[in-house]
Amino acid sequence: MEQSETSVQPQAAGDAIDLPFPEIREVELSDPFDWLARGARDLLAIRGASLFYGFCFAAMGWLLMTVFSHAYQLTSALVCGFLLVGPFFALGLYDLSRQRESGEEPMLAHSLTAGHQNAGAIGVFAVILIIVFLIWARASLVIFALFYTAEMPTLNRFLEQVVSMQNLEFLMAYAVVGFVFASLVFGASVVAIPLMLDRRQDAVTAMLASLVALGRNPGPMLVWAVLIVSATLIGFMTFFLGLIVLMPLIGHATWHAYKALVVPLPGR
């Protein structure tokens, strides 16, 4: 029986070194919207499992706000850092889309252990994301310390400054530094985790393939980044309620971005 393109072939322990470097396609500027549409179809077809992950994302945000309610500068750093580690936490969503695309019945239990067959490479990538996240958290606190040298404003006063665009120096510094960190992670993770999940590719090759995808498709990748950031901001602005739907949508769409950007292996 002919196997589906997305099914994962069993590999011996050393087979990953024989995998060729992923071939990257050029895509159209409008393709990110198609990825979202395909992700929405996955979300509707796998509502229960997808929304489980969505509630987990929202619960993470609520937990951070509760635990660090006395130190909103920490909450701000951690919540913004959510964008940096999001690609790893969406691993189960990629697997749900992979199962559905291969003609299998998508199962939440299977997605919870997704990636165990390539745990080493995915673990390396997760460690890299955590390191970047910790550096960002420190940088975020330094920015707060530089611009609030006398006394931290109250939370209400801080939010008022953000909404009314007061203290523009702080807002610009925070945005620029955050942009640098987010760009680094986005560039290295466009197709990295789906590639490691689908082909059991090593972490370094997967990150390089992501950078190649970004380099070959700067326009579509910019559109894709704007869509991801917009969805995340909407989720934050709705006190994380929007994340329940928007994060599964982005997760499923990311799988389809990977399938559109990376040429399948011969015979797959």
Order of helices and strands: HHHHHHHHHHHH
Q: End-to-end distance, in Å?
A: 13 Å
Number of domains: 1
The secondary structure category is mainly alpha
Q: What general outline do the C-alpha atoms trace?
A: globular
* Beta strand %: under 5%
| Percent helix | over 70%
Please count the beta strands (DSSP E, at least 2 residues each). 0
Report the uncertain regions. 1-17
Estimate the mean pLDDT confidence: 85
Assembly of the depicted chains: single chain
Query: Number of helical segments?
Result: 12
Main beta sheet? none
Measured on Cα atoms, how large is the radius of gyration? 19 Å
Layout of strands and helices, then pairs:
Elements: H1 31-45, H2 47-67, H3 72-89, H4 91-101, H5 108-112, H6 119-147, H7 155-163, H8 168-189, H9 192-199, H10 203-216, H11 218-237, H12 243-261
Q: Could you characterize what this model shows?
A:
The chain is mainly α and 268 residues long. The protein has one domain. Helix 11 runs antiparallel to helix 12. It is globular and about 65 Å long. The two termini are 13 Å apart. 39% of the residues are buried.
